[in-house]
Design goal:
- With 476 residues, the chain is of the alpha/beta class.
- It is built from 16 helices and 18 strands.
- The chain has a seven-stranded mixed β-sheet with strand order 12-13-14-11-10-15-16, with helices on both faces. A six-stranded mixed β-sheet has the order 7-6-5-8-9-17, sandwiched between helices. A three-stranded antiparallel β-sheet has the order 3-4-18.
- The chain starts with 14 loop residues before the first helix and ends with a strand.
- The relative contact order is 0.14.
Amino acid sequence: MTMETTTTDGSLETYEGLLAAISASEGTPVLDPATGEVLAHAPASTPADLDAAVEAARAAQPAWEALGHERRSAILVEAADAVDRSAAALAELISREQGKPLNGPGSRFEAGGVSAWLRTAAATELPDETLLEEPRATIAYRAVGLVGAIGPWNWPALIASWQLAPALRMGNAVIMKPSEHTPLSVLALGAILGQVLPEGVLTVLAGDRDLGAALTTHPAFGKIMFTGSTATGKAIVAASADNLPRLTLELGGNDPGIVLPDVDPAAIAQDLFWGAFINTGQTCAALKRLYVHEDVYDAVVEALRAVASQVPMGPGIEEASALGPLTTSDQFAIVDRLVEDARASGGRIVLGGDPDRDAPGNFYPATLVADIDAHAALVVEEQFGPALPIVRYRDLDEAIALANGLDVGLGASVWSADAAAARTVAARVQAGTVWINSHGGVHPMIPFGGIKGSGYGLEFGVEGLKAVAVPHVING
């Protein structure tokens, strides 16, 4: 089922109007993670719907590309304006569906990020480049044609914008499949953008894994973008091989942080906390394992405990909440299992670790686990939730080896009062991005992507535009 709308009467600027425009009378139930109740039903699109969307996209894409960069960019700015008008409604929907709080780095931040990525994609220049004057050689970047995008449930609307904004800017038509856990937010974004975009240029199809499998094997797509687990990324590589589409895969993390002995623990505690617990820990590039030098270990643990104990958790829709529920009951079970394993193997629960398993909603408290073995499951498995293992180290080489020892490499961070020393350590860490004295911040002009089991391909900025285009060299 495709989602198209041409409304401009303001009905998409209220939560009730937005939800009514995208929900189905029957279909896939979408649960509110704060209560466990059914929030709404999403349309259940099928591979046949995908075929219809492909035909519409094929019909629309040539005219969209022919508009040229300047006109397409102007339309993307209009699309960003439409997002801004519906930002409050979109933020409320994200909070109710995904669980993140309205405030802080929450759903209002996410809705604002969608607008920012659209505007940046529109403003980023990618002119033809002269490689040599004699013999003359130039390179330009042209549309792929059709881009298929599969998104995750943790930042559903924002990551959708990371995929669709550059793809549309470069003249492609886009078909998106959101996660079955958070389809409403992306359907809503599609409806908002549909007020501005030509019909067929962007289609959002909500469906199950069969729909995702059909997309990854469909021969129409010249580019497939995926954000999600490493296991699913590997399956996409295998399934798409016969068609040889270009791939951008932003896969699992398990980001390390290394704290050097010269830090002021109280000064870094707030940033450490939010680097790990943003979106209740449900962020691919969140800080998920922390290595702290023994000289400052106890002080860092205590400073983190002091911060974490003051952060309120509750339903995302409540203004006072700073942390929300986990999005799914399955994710709750994963975090619970890993924390209990850490407890049983001798880890010290400094804070949290005591969820009310009988209460409604997927609320798991912010949890700090100290004195944990460097090879415990909570350290080496990506928990994707509000539980941070803190490992003590004595030798820096040992800490770097532990940080590099897993088959992941999305992000990492180094914490030090000496920026030069931090950069020296950062250069030895195997990750697509290494932050200094912060963790997880992204910027629409700074390329972002992983290495090793965290995938390949870059998003954002000029490199992100190139990634959703094909190079065209003229030699002579």
